[in-house]
Amino acid sequence: MKIINKDLASLKRLVQTKTQQLTDLKVESAVRDIIANVIEKGDAAVKAYEAQFDNVDVTDFKLSQAVIDDAYANLDPQVKDALLLAKRNITSFHEKEKATGFIDAEQPGVLRGQKLLPLKRVGLYVPGGTAAYPSTLLMSALPAKIAGVSEVIMVTPPQVDGINPAVLAAAKIAGVDAIYQVGGAQAIAALAYGTESIPAVDKIIGPGNVFVATAKKQVFGQVAIDMVAGPSEIGILADDSADPRQLAADLLSQAEHDQRARPILITDSADLAQAVSDNVTSQLKVLPREAIATEAVNEKGFIAVVAKVEEMFDLMNTVAPEHLEVQLKNPTQYLNLIKNAGSVFLGRYASEPLGDYVAGPNHILPTSGTARFSSPLGVYDFVKRTSFIQYTKDALAKEAPAITTLARVEGLEGHARAIESRFDTYYD
Ligand SMILES: NC(=O)c1ccc[n+]([C@@H]2O[C@H](COP(=O)([O-])OP(=O)(O)OC[C@H]3O[C@@H](n4cnc5c(N)ncnc54)[C@H](O)[C@@H]3O)[C@@H](O)[C@H]2O)c1
Ligand SMILES: N[C@H](CO)Cc1c[nH]c[nH+]1
Ligand SMILES: [Zn+2]
């Protein structure tokens, strides 16, 4: 893995060039064509794209309940237990995110409030191009259910040998209402605009590769989206107290997701940097997904050596990684230095895959530097807020002069008259 020794300003520039560009023009234009075709030709276009990109001739997009029940009934008990443990921990964590509305009656004659309503129908994208992700399904479906969404539907790419049974079983465990075998940008287009057999939804949730993330950006406005969650990332801050073998393993855990994944280590120890780089080289060889991980390590990955701990955090806040591991002595003391990160893992035993599978906090997180302004997926992503107002005549009378003044400043005479019509001052 490349080791870079440069001043902080140069390292920050390097981070920016290595950040996944959210506007890859070739992908943008390919995705635009796919969406236009799905809008125009519906199921026929989706079917053609599935044959082209996934080599599957799909006859029925919607999976039958019998196929799902069968997958659940035949699931390896150890896998079922692991999914159920994950479900318990995800549920107990996300229950704490539930919010209620409020009523404010503090001013005489004034009632103000906000009510929360679950979304009606959401579409979950469960990635499936190069690996199956039952864990990701739990991470999106369980918060949707906790929020009270009435209809939770799911899409995932079809597979030549059928969709991975663990994904189907996880869907049953999480209470997903319907599963459609369709992936990539065509799935996002179908969820946004609807086709003859796939219903349009109010919001599209879930991560995916660059085609999926780009399609979500392009359909935003027609539907809501959760965030731009693309290829996985890990940023690690470590000093010489960390174990280079473990750091290399954690970097590779995310590199193996995608050629475009970003594994980054920032340290103040040149010896540690070299040891991690050597370990990455040797550990790569044992990974079944060696080719994918190697490309991610070489293209997006690097190890930066900086002078002191403050510079580590400064640089990592520029990266704004999806996952941030803090493998420094007494890691909790640094929490206040972290400004941009999707999810933080403190200390040697909080290895990133702990959060991927069972700890409970959501693993659907902002990527590509968007942790500067986005949050982990949560129950709050499945609810919308509506505010309400009620005034008595006396309460309105007190504030009417301010309203009519502001209305006339904006040149909106009709607004002023609407207020004045409630009082004797009203004239035609
Ligand atoms: N943030 C998270 O929570 C999280 C969780 C799991 C996975 N991930 C990420 O999700 C991604 C999964 O990617 P994936 O590829 O395995 O699955 P995917 O389901 O996201 O994408 C596969 C689909 O991409 C489409 N596609 C492939 N090549 C194409 C091309 N040339 N043109 C147009 N469309 C094409 C196909 O339709 C295929 O069905 C990875 O980047 C992984 O890091 C993120
Ligand atoms: N690390 C991914 C989120 O970026 C989630 C995941 C699912 N399975 C394994 N990993
Ligand atoms: Zn992962």
From TrEMBL:
Keywords: Amino-acid biosynthesis, Histidine biosynthesis, Metal-binding, NAD, Oxidoreductase, Zinc. Zn(2+) binds at Q254, H257, D356, H415. It catalyses: L-histidinol + 2 NAD(+) + H2O = L-histidine + 2 NADH + 3 H(+). Pathway: Amino-acid biosynthesis; L-histidine biosynthesis; L-histidine from 5-phospho-alpha-D-ribose 1-diphosphate: step 9/9. CDD domains: Histidinol_dh. GO terms for molecular function: histidinol dehydrogenase activity; NAD binding; zinc ion binding. The active site is at E322 (proton acceptor), H323 (proton acceptor). It is an enzyme of class 1 (oxidoreductase). One of its GO terms (cellular component) is cytosol. Gene3D superfamilies: 1.20.5.1300, Nitrogenase molybdenum iron protein domain. One of its GO terms (biological process) is L-histidine biosynthetic process. Catalyzes the sequential NAD-dependent oxidations of L-histidinol to L-histidinaldehyde and then to L-histidine. Belongs to the histidinol dehydrogenase family. This is Histidinol dehydrogenase.
